[in-house]
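@channel sequence for tomorrow's demo:
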Amino acid sequence: MVRYRFANTTERIKSIMSLLKNKEKQMFEELFRMNTGNVLDFTNNTLSAFVKDEINVDIYNDDGYKEYCSKANKLRQIWRDETDYKVALLMIAMLDYYEDYLLKNNITDPHKKNRIAYLKNKCIELKENAEITISLPNIDNQSLKSLLEDIDLSLKHNKPESVLDRLHTYATKYLRFVCTNNSIEIMDDQGKYYPLPNLIGSLRRVYEKDPEIKTRFSLIAMKSSISLFEQFNDVRNSYSYAHDNENLYYCEAKYIVKIVAETLMFIDGIEKSRTKDVRR
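structure tokens (generated this afternoon):
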């Protein structure tokens, strides 16, 4: 598979940069007194530890963060370089931290409280919009259920790159299950399992004769998915945590996860419709 690479760091940043609006940024600037170069009462060490705990970014040692600058500029860099999800998580945590600070110091300021509430709502909205949500077939099989739980947990942490290996395993087990239900061979004469593209191709030939499929569009899409799942094998072997691989960028991993999930859900929908017809 030819992996898409960004031409330079700036292009990569633009592809993942946070969509936190200038209005909210300015409100954070004022609330956290960032014009001084500081962020609340954080020191370099406490800010570094706080950010590392919340979004696993080392603001003094990670790539792109090694150049020394003020604490305020480190936060501005996070706004610029990180994903919506990470930015939202961090800013919600910082707002909670500031609320605790005001409470501990008996500071009553209606304006600050209103500003915190407004910004927290905006960040929660940003986080929810950034979360990855997919559906996968849920069948009565313990092995598949365990894989679903692992996949769901990684997606809740907004880490599609860590899902690729388990999603490949899930897709393989699920398609073998579906093919077996359709009396399709899943192993060759030597007892070796057929790979994902073969399973998809065999299912497509069965579906070609199925009246549930009303359009050529769906059959052509399934035919295209044969090559997609062939490349998914390469993704699993070359770009997932299955081996010591270079990981994909967030946006590409997310794209692959969604396409594979949608294909499996389409197959699941067909299978459920066919089962209903048989029962009639």
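heads up for whoever presents: The first helix runs from residue 9 to 16.
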